Known about the structure:
The strands form 5 sheets. Strands 1, 2, 3, 5, 8 and 13 form a 6-stranded antiparallel sheet that branches. Strands 9-10-11 form a 3-stranded antiparallel sheet, with no helix packed on it. A hairpin with a 6-residue loop joins strand 9 (126-131) and strand 10. The protein is built from 3 helices and 15 strands. The chain starts with 10 loop residues before the first strand and ends with a strand. It has one domain (3-185). The chain is 18% helix and 31% strand. The chain has helices at 57-68, 71-76, 104-118, and strands at 11-14, 17-23, 28-31, 39-40, 77-78, 80-83, 94-97, 99-100, 126-131, 138-142, 152-156, 160-161, 166-169, 174-176, 182-185.
Amino acid sequence: MPLSSLAIGDTVQFAGYTWDILDPSTGYLLMQSAYGSPQPFDSDNFNTFDPTLPSNIAYYLNNTFYNSLSPADQALIQLHDWNIGAETNESSSTAFSYVGLVSYSELNNYIMYVGTYYADLSLSSWWTLTPCSGGTHEVWCVLLHKNFSSPLFANLAIMSVGVCPALYLNPDVSVTGGNGGTITGS
Protein backbone atom coordinates (compact mmCIF):
# COMPACT_ATOMS: atom_id res chain seq x y z
CA MET A 1 0.00 0.00 0.00
CA PRO A 2 1.24 3.55 -0.59
CA LEU A 3 2.42 5.74 2.28
CA SER A 4 -0.30 8.25 1.34
CA SER A 5 -3.01 5.73 2.30
CA LEU A 6 -1.93 5.73 5.96
CA ALA A 7 -3.11 8.26 8.56
CA ILE A 8 -1.51 11.07 10.53
CA GLY A 9 -0.04 9.52 13.68
CA ASP A 10 0.51 6.09 12.13
CA THR A 11 4.07 4.77 12.17
CA VAL A 12 6.39 3.24 9.60
CA GLN A 13 9.80 1.60 9.69
CA PHE A 14 12.34 3.32 7.45
CA ALA A 15 16.14 3.04 7.37
CA GLY A 16 16.13 1.00 10.58
CA TYR A 17 14.17 3.60 12.59
CA THR A 18 10.53 4.09 13.60
CA TRP A 19 8.92 7.23 12.19
CA ASP A 20 5.65 9.01 12.93
CA ILE A 21 3.68 10.00 9.86
CA LEU A 22 2.92 13.71 10.17
CA ASP A 23 1.39 14.17 6.71
CA PRO A 24 0.75 11.08 4.59
CA SER A 25 -0.24 13.16 1.54
CA THR A 26 3.26 14.69 1.37
CA GLY A 27 5.22 11.78 2.89
CA TYR A 28 6.31 13.90 5.88
CA LEU A 29 7.89 11.78 8.66
CA LEU A 30 9.39 12.52 12.08
CA MET A 31 11.80 10.07 13.72
CA GLN A 32 10.28 8.71 16.91
CA SER A 33 13.58 8.66 18.78
CA ALA A 34 16.65 10.83 18.86
CA TYR A 35 19.48 10.23 16.44
CA GLY A 36 22.93 9.99 17.97
CA SER A 37 23.93 12.00 21.01
CA PRO A 38 22.60 15.46 21.94
CA GLN A 39 24.00 18.17 19.66
CA PRO A 40 24.23 21.97 19.72
CA PHE A 41 21.97 23.66 17.17
CA ASP A 42 25.06 25.58 16.14
CA SER A 43 28.40 25.50 17.95
CA ASP A 44 29.01 29.12 16.82
CA ASN A 45 25.67 30.16 18.43
CA PHE A 46 23.99 30.88 15.06
CA ASN A 47 20.22 30.37 15.33
CA THR A 48 19.30 29.72 11.67
CA PHE A 49 19.03 26.22 10.16
CA ASP A 50 21.81 26.27 7.51
CA PRO A 51 23.00 23.07 5.77
CA THR A 52 26.12 24.84 4.42
CA LEU A 53 27.63 25.58 7.85
CA PRO A 54 29.68 22.71 9.38
CA SER A 55 28.90 24.14 12.86
CA ASN A 56 25.12 23.81 12.27
CA ILE A 57 22.58 21.07 13.05
CA ALA A 58 21.41 21.21 9.41
CA TYR A 59 24.89 20.21 8.27
CA TYR A 60 24.96 17.39 10.85
CA LEU A 61 21.58 16.08 9.65
CA ASN A 62 22.39 16.31 5.94
CA ASN A 63 25.86 14.84 6.25
CA THR A 64 26.38 12.69 9.36
CA PHE A 65 22.80 11.37 9.54
CA TYR A 66 22.04 11.30 5.79
CA ASN A 67 25.37 9.62 4.96
CA SER A 68 24.69 6.94 7.60
CA LEU A 69 21.74 5.71 5.50
CA SER A 70 22.05 3.17 2.71
CA PRO A 71 22.07 4.47 -0.87
CA ALA A 72 18.67 2.79 -1.38
CA ASP A 73 17.20 4.68 1.59
CA GLN A 74 18.84 7.94 0.51
CA ALA A 75 17.20 7.58 -2.92
CA LEU A 76 13.73 7.60 -1.31
CA ILE A 77 14.23 10.91 0.53
CA GLN A 78 13.01 14.02 -1.29
CA LEU A 79 14.76 17.37 -1.29
CA HIS A 80 12.54 19.86 0.51
CA ASP A 81 12.34 23.61 1.02
CA TRP A 82 12.15 23.88 4.83
CA ASN A 83 10.58 27.01 6.36
CA ILE A 84 13.28 28.34 8.69
CA GLY A 85 12.01 31.78 9.70
CA ALA A 86 11.18 32.71 13.29
CA GLU A 87 7.88 31.52 14.81
CA THR A 88 6.21 34.83 13.93
CA ASN A 89 6.81 34.24 10.18
CA GLU A 90 8.30 30.81 9.50
CA SER A 91 7.92 31.10 5.72
CA SER A 92 10.04 34.29 5.59
CA SER A 93 13.15 32.20 4.93
CA THR A 94 13.81 28.70 3.60
CA ALA A 95 16.60 26.15 3.39
CA PHE A 96 16.75 23.44 0.74
CA SER A 97 17.92 20.05 2.08
CA TYR A 98 17.06 16.38 2.44
CA VAL A 99 16.71 16.26 6.22
CA GLY A 100 15.26 18.82 8.59
CA LEU A 101 13.53 19.16 11.93
CA VAL A 102 9.93 19.96 12.83
CA SER A 103 9.10 23.64 13.05
CA TYR A 104 7.45 25.53 15.89
CA SER A 105 4.07 25.62 14.11
CA GLU A 106 4.28 21.99 12.97
CA LEU A 107 4.87 20.83 16.51
CA ASN A 108 1.80 22.76 17.63
CA ASN A 109 -0.21 21.17 14.79
CA TYR A 110 0.98 17.61 15.38
CA ILE A 111 1.50 17.49 19.15
CA MET A 112 -1.54 15.28 19.69
CA TYR A 113 -0.02 12.67 17.37
CA VAL A 114 3.56 12.62 18.66
CA GLY A 115 3.29 13.62 22.33
CA THR A 116 2.69 10.17 23.75
CA TYR A 117 5.77 8.73 22.04
CA TYR A 118 8.19 11.53 22.79
CA ALA A 119 7.09 11.84 26.42
CA ASP A 120 8.96 8.60 27.08
CA LEU A 121 12.28 9.64 25.55
CA SER A 122 15.18 9.79 27.93
CA LEU A 123 15.89 13.24 26.51
CA SER A 124 14.98 16.33 28.42
CA SER A 125 14.49 18.22 25.16
CA TRP A 126 15.02 18.21 21.39
CA TRP A 127 15.43 20.86 18.68
CA THR A 128 12.95 22.38 16.26
CA LEU A 129 14.38 24.26 13.27
CA THR A 130 12.68 27.54 14.28
CA PRO A 131 14.71 30.45 15.62
CA CYS A 132 13.19 32.40 18.49
CA SER A 133 12.04 35.88 17.45
CA GLY A 134 12.89 37.18 20.91
CA GLY A 135 16.57 36.24 20.94
CA THR A 136 19.38 36.40 18.39
CA HIS A 137 21.02 33.22 19.70
CA GLU A 138 17.93 31.21 20.69
CA VAL A 139 16.09 28.38 18.96
CA TRP A 140 12.80 26.75 19.96
CA CYS A 141 13.14 23.37 21.66
CA VAL A 142 10.58 20.74 22.57
CA LEU A 143 10.17 19.64 26.15
CA LEU A 144 7.59 16.89 26.51
CA HIS A 145 6.50 15.23 29.68
CA LYS A 146 3.17 14.19 31.08
CA ASN A 147 2.27 17.51 32.76
CA PHE A 148 3.30 20.31 30.42
CA SER A 149 1.44 23.53 29.73
CA SER A 150 3.54 24.32 26.65
CA PRO A 151 5.92 21.86 25.01
CA LEU A 152 8.07 24.65 23.53
CA PHE A 153 10.78 26.77 25.10
CA ALA A 154 13.62 28.93 23.80
CA ASN A 155 17.14 27.57 24.26
CA LEU A 156 20.57 28.92 23.36
CA ALA A 157 21.83 27.50 20.05
CA ILE A 158 25.13 26.43 21.65
CA MET A 159 23.38 24.08 24.12
CA SER A 160 23.37 20.36 23.32
CA VAL A 161 19.94 18.75 23.16
CA GLY A 162 18.35 15.84 21.28
CA VAL A 163 17.94 15.61 17.52
CA CYS A 164 14.80 14.02 16.03
CA PRO A 165 15.20 14.15 12.23
CA ALA A 166 12.28 14.92 9.93
CA LEU A 167 12.15 14.14 6.20
CA TYR A 168 9.88 13.76 3.20
CA LEU A 169 9.47 10.55 1.23
CA ASN A 170 7.48 10.23 -1.97
CA PRO A 171 3.90 9.69 -0.70
CA ASP A 172 3.49 6.90 -3.29
CA VAL A 173 6.35 4.86 -1.79
CA SER A 174 5.23 1.34 -0.81
CA VAL A 175 4.63 0.32 2.79
CA THR A 176 4.45 -3.39 3.53
CA GLY A 177 2.20 -4.16 6.49
CA GLY A 178 0.24 -0.90 6.78
CA ASN A 179 0.43 1.03 10.07
CA GLY A 180 3.70 -0.01 11.73
CA GLY A 181 4.89 -1.54 8.47
CA THR A 182 8.11 -1.11 6.54
CA ILE A 183 8.89 1.26 3.68
CA THR A 184 9.89 -1.07 0.86
CA GLY A 185 10.63 1.34 -1.97
CA SER A 186 8.93 3.11 -4.81
